Amino acid sequence: MTGETVYLLCGVWALVVLGIFIQAIRLSYRIEGRSPGLTNRSGFPRNAMMFHTVTNMNVARDQETQAMRRRMNRLLLIVLAGFALLWAGVSLAQSAE
């Protein structure tokens, strides 16, 4: 594979993984809005409380919110798998040299 092709594939990979991660963050904000224990009442913007939503801490227990949480967890697993595949591809390319 030429260097240009590798850069192109890595760029596309980065955009895809970034898009999936942004979807997970948006879902986290929606879950926080539905969960009384995680609602932002300060009036100031804050970072997404992804640790709480991933681990189901103070998250509403209704079916729809839990379904959103499971979808967010799947998206985060896809991001993790994307990094693992990129690492495997780089390792394979280095061993082939």
TrEMBL record:
Tree of life domain: Bacteria
Protein name according to UniProt: Uncharacterized protein
Keyword vocabulary terms for this entry: Membrane, Transmembrane, Transmembrane helix
Membrane spanning residue stretches: 6-25, 75-96
